[in-house]
Amino acid sequence: MDYLSYALKQDDLDRLKEFKKQFHCPDGSRYFVGNSLGLLSESAEQSLEEVLIEWKDHGIGGWLSDNPWYYFSEKLSEKFAPFLGADKSEIILTGSITSNLHQAIATFYQPTSKRFKIVTDELSFPTDMYVLQSQMQHHNVDLEKGLKKIKSHDGFLLTEEDIFKSIKDDVAILFLPSVIYTSGQLLNIKKIVEYAHAKGVTVGFDLAHSVGVIPHQLHEWGVDFAVWCNYKYINGGPGAVGGLFIHERHHEKEPAFKGWFGCDKQQQFNMSHTFYKAKGAGGFQLGTPHILSLAPLKGSLELLEQAGIENIRLKSMKITDYMVDIIKELIPELTIVSPLLANNRGGHIAITHDEAYRISKIMRDYKVIVDCRGNIIRLSPHPLYCSFREVWEVVNLLQRIIDEELYLKYEKKLDIIT
């Protein structure tokens, strides 16, 4: 197969190709870490500048100006809801993955002598594990007895059989990633929720590696709660405000942690020491919204609306399929640890090599930005700003680096950030 000709044809047919012009790519690089930090778009830049001007022109008046900051989180959450298949009342843009997960687990985890275990997976991102451990310790639950990690047979993937076997009558909460951050495996959220609910188990998800690249139907699937960040595929900027989903059947719950902006908007400035919970997921907010970190999301969401999440998913599947095929053809000695079927993975491809770190370092010398997690190189062609031709170029460069062992010129000493 002529992989370059195929790439050029696909780029010509690509209905999302015009979006690439919107993004600022540093130093003309081929940027394949959209699953780690998305690029700045002109739309996000403009929406941030608008808020800066409001701050300059209105000062404190910006809270109730023509675009009032007071309702900024709620307005953006309403625009966000369709991407997750949620009612507008079920989503709030607030906090970070870590703070939102603390809020959710503290609210939903009420251990009893019969149901006290939390089940997660041994491949979880560290911050998720830290939260689960600290919340269980707060309840004086022995971690050895109470925290159960689903084993991976190969260190990269989970099986549904193992997930289901872990759900027993003593489990209070099942918390999993929608997409495993290393291998890119996409779990069947709907099927997992149905099984767990039949066992009386509350189910939550970390959506960090699926939001913005995969359509969701959180309300219909019955997910109890979910958290995510907005600096990856959403392109909301470094440290962008995160997101929290609380299914409407739980909206009467009292949040474990109560804060200023979780108060009903009509009551907030009565300055009462009595907490009047806001309706919906908004009642689970804590402090004042980080307006400058919310601002880029306005422009980012406008781009996602224009592109369409279904179109983004279709291109993501097609371009990662192409990457898998070309890697298998040109660099057969590499191991692809991501699921080979596009329906079973998120937006990135993970490959393993003993020299993954040094390979990722030298690729940056050639203006190809990838990241490394242990012996895994993650390659994420974002559908809005990566092309099929760039995939061809990146894989050809990777082949050359490996064949000629160009990575040997680097020391094995890790940088602080990889």
TrEMBL record:
| Residues binding pyridoxal 5'-phosphate, per UniProt | I97, T98, F125, P126, T127, D128, D206, H209, Y231, W260, T288
- Quickly give the catalysed reaction: 3-hydroxy-L-kynurenine + H2O = 3-hydroxyanthranilate + L-alanine + H(+); L-kynurenine + H2O = anthranilate + L-alanine + H(+)
> What positions does the domain Aminotransferase class V occupy?
74-355
Q: Does the keyword Transit peptide apply?
A: no
The Swiss-Prot or TrEMBL record lists the needed cofactor(s) as:
pyridoxal 5'-phosphate
Q: Which residues carry this modification: N6-(pyridoxal phosphate)lysine?
A: K232
UniProt keyword list: Hydrolase, Pyridine nucleotide biosynthesis, Pyridoxal phosphate
Q: What SUPFAM superfamilies has UniProt attached to this entry?
A: PLP-dependent transferases (SSF53383)
Q: What is its EC number?
A: 3.7.1.3
Does the record's keyword annotation contain Hydrolase? yes
Pathway membership, UniProt: Cofactor biosynthesis; NAD(+) biosynthesis; quinolinate from L-kynurenine: step 2/3; Amino-acid degradation; L-kynurenine degradation; L-alanine and anthranilate from L-kynurenine: step 1/1
MF terms from GO for this chain are:
kynureninase activity
Tell me its family: Belongs to the kynureninase family.
**Record's subunit section:** Homodimer.
Q: What does this protein do?
A: Catalyzes the cleavage of L-kynurenine (L-Kyn) and L-3-hydroxykynurenine (L-3OHKyn) into anthranilic acid (AA) and 3-hydroxyanthranilic acid (3-OHAA), respectively.
The record, for PANTHER family, names: KYNURENINASE (PTHR14084)
Name this polypeptide is given: Kynureninase
Give the originating organism. Bacillus carboniphilus
Q: What is the lineage of its organism?
A: Bacteria, Bacillati, Bacillota, Bacilli, Bacillales
What is the gene name? kynU
